[in-house]
Design a protein that fits this description.
binds ligand TLP, 14 helices, Aspartate Aminotransferase, domain 1, 2 domains, 7-stranded mixed sheet, alpha/beta, 4-stranded antiparallel sheet, about 350 residues
Length: about 350
């Protein structure tokens, strides 16, 4: 019998479980643009409660959540401060420029994490020539940072500095659930430090689609208008919201398993020749490592031929992501295959 392919490209590839599908199939629905989908309303209320915010807005994707947030915090011609490897800047198709008409001022972080001083050094005094910097965005966990978790004190320092200089603050919390489990701090402990937070139900939580944006009620009302403008007003979206509600109730605690699996992979890879990886930097469900001897693209092909899918995220960088569709047994086998490829 053919061996199962172990897909570690992303936690976005997770399929809805049978129990999740049952919730989706029986969801009560209505027209959400009229505010009449009871399941979407429930999901928005529950997300706001988990994040300790006044209100939340269900949107189709994490990208849309972030881009609505940027649009709702700024006006065209403004500037936003964002880390150079942040998803918002690196992977969202130039949307800050295309959709909100803002320019990005880039900060250099370490594994995606920067300091209050880094932010301060990017701020310029008010002057006719300079675009006003209105917003700073953080990402937690940080994707290209290898799933790194921001220390709470550092978030506090950055967001306090931002506030002191009149900047709004947004958190790309696509994987805030992982940060909460890894750090032992509830999601709302992170969220309270920001004006707005985006979260995704379709990554490690395993829902088929959907994200949310949370903030204060008046601002979410403004965001709702931009959701419509961006084409994200959905109708009987309760079918999707039901999957997200199921994920919130059943798939958050289990993220600890994914984190343990990432640790196991990292421990094995770190001993392989040609691999640069410090396993101590693996904090959540991602393992990003540098390949010192062969190009990442060729290694990914070789791994796939042996039954493991990985993602080349640079000429010499590979990313592995653990998630609810990979068991401990799969991790053992994936580790064997990785060792075989790197030791050959
Ligand atoms: N990230 C995807 C790819 O786009 C790279 C992945 O496989 O990790 N914020 C963060 C931090 C993300 O990692 C992602 C997705 C998003 C936002 C966007 O979410 P979607 O894909 O729902 O638009």
């Amino acid at each position: 019998m053919a061996q199962k392919i172990i897909d570690l490209r992303s936690d976005t590839i997770t399929l809805p479980t049978p129990a999740m599908r049952r919730c989706m199939a029986s969801a009560e629905v209505g027209d959400d643009v009229f505010g009449e989908d009871p399941t979407v309303n429930l999901l928005e209320a529950r997300t706001a409660e988990i994040l300790g915010k006044e209100a939340a807005l269900f949107v189709p994707s994490g990208t849309m959540a972030n881009q609505i947030a940027i649009r709702a915090h700024t006006e065209p011609g403004d500037e936003i401060a964002v880390e150079a490897n942040a998803h918002i800047y690196y992977y969202e198709c130039g949307s800050p420029a295309a959709l909100a008409g803002v320019q990005c001022r880039l900060l250099n972080g370490q594994r995606g994490i920067f300091s209050a001083e880094d932010l301060l050094s990017a701020l310029r005094p008010a002057n006719l020539h300079f675009p006003p910097t209105r917003l700073v965005c953080l990402e937690n966990t940080h994707n290209r940072g290898g799933g790194s978790v921001w220390p709470m004190a550092q978030i506090s320092a950055v967001t306090q500095t931002a506030r002191r200089h009149g900047l709004r603050t947004h958190l790309d919390g696509a994987r805030l659930w992982n940060a909460a489990i890894a750090s032992g701090n509830p999601e709302k402990a992170f969220a309270r430090l920001f004006d707005s937070v985006s979260v995704c139900f379709s990554k490690g939580l395993g829902a088929p689609a959907g994200s949310a944006l949370a903030g204060d009620a008046a601002w979410i009302q403004r965001a709702r208008r931009f959701r419509k403008q961006f084409g994200g007003g959905m109708r009987q979206a309760g079918i999707l919201a039901a999957g997200a509600l199921h994920a919130l109730d059943h798939h958050r605690e289990r993220l600890a398993e994914d984190h343990a699996h990432a640790q196991q992979l990292a421990a094995r890879l770190a001993n392989c020749p040609g691999v640069e990886l410090n396993p101590a930097t693996v904090e959540t469900n991602m393992v990003i490592f540098r390949c010192l001897q062969r190009p990442a693209a060729g290694l990914v092909e070789r791994l796939q031929a042996l039954g493991v899918r990985a993602l080349a995220i640079g000429p010499d960088q590979i990313r592995l992501v653990t998630h609810l569709m990979v068991s401990s047994r799969d991790i053992q086998r994936a580790g064997d295959i990785l060792v075989r490829v790197f030791k050959s």
